[in-house]
Amino acid sequence: MYGITILIILLVKQDIVRSVRLVELRVPTHEREGGSALLGCQYDLEGDTLYAVKWYKDGKEFFKYAPRIQTPMKHFKLPGVHVNESRSSTTVVALENLTRESAGLYACEVSGEAPSFMTARSEKYITVHLIPDTGPKLTGLKDKYFLDDLVVSNCTTAPSTPEAHLKWLINDRPVLKRFLRGPWYRVSADRPDAIETTLQLRFTVTPSDFVDGAMKLTCQSTIAPLYQQETTSTHYIDLPLSLETPSPVSSPSTDHAIKTNWSILTVLLSVLFLRI
Ligand SMILES: *[C@@H]1O[C@H](CO)[C@@H](O)[C@H](O)[C@H]1NC(C)=O
Ligand SMILES: *[C@@H]1O[C@H](CO)[C@@H](O)[C@H](O)[C@H]1NC(C)=O
Ligand SMILES: *[C@@H]1O[C@H](CO)[C@@H](O)[C@H](O)[C@H]1NC(C)=O
Ligand SMILES: *[C@@H]1O[C@H](CO)[C@@H](O)[C@H](O)[C@H]1NC(C)=O
Fold it and tell me: What InterPro entries does the record tag this protein with (predicted)?
């Protein structure tokens, strides 16, 4: 039933648009504030002569190209729509200095000459994101850590729209949920639509957190599909003098394994003794 409806709509449309056929509207679906965008409108006149190409945002016309007119190109000011005419043509419109007001439904409309004035139109939505120009910030970290020290660090991404997705890694491995607090979201003071995101890492240092004496803490921030940045902080284990061995340094994880095996042995032995 649905398929038949679509077929009928297509047939009716085809009937109206006899001469001008819109081939493709090439518009980015996601852009960043402050950036620029090229909007492309590829069409097939099928023998007809071009009368005009018009561009609309949310139903309001902002660009027109009519080749038969003395000044073929014209643009009109709309909030968030800044056309650069020298980079625009019959098939492309260049927008610059995008703002949050640039987001909206963009349409390209192509019409043929008299007598038919046949028109074809296509439209697409453009979303505009506020993207930080720096990576996430880490706070609360010390230079060095001892074993059994508590590591508490906040990873914070500057205000963005939408909110960022944060992820912590220790030595490139994702951190278990129980070592995380948050995420916390704070509305930006000067942009009620922008959100600052924080995720806290909180864990007690164990020997297995060090690889070759170093512990690498990384926070990744993602605002799909436009932004992914990470910040890494590397810390060296601060061993008490008694534990420090001259070169080569024994891997702390081995110590840990031996300790574990001794404790297993102890448990086994006590079970045996209890049985006897
Ligand atoms: C349009 O783009 C050109 C080339 O990038 C640039 O030189 C010019 O300043 C721009 N015009 C406006 C009005 O921004
Ligand atoms: C974009 O902003 C720059 C800097 O303010 C300006 O020079 C340029 O003309 C603007 N572009 C358009 C198309 O308005
Ligand atoms: C981390 O962020 C929370 C919530 O904003 C705050 O209460 C806490 O003091 C921060 N801690 C550090 C170490 O920055
Ligand atoms: C500790 O025990 C595990 C198995 O439980 C074994 O694979 C490992 O080699 C042992 N480590 C040492 C240092 O004995």
Answer: Ig-like_dom, Ig-like_dom_sf, Ig-like_fold, Ig_V-set
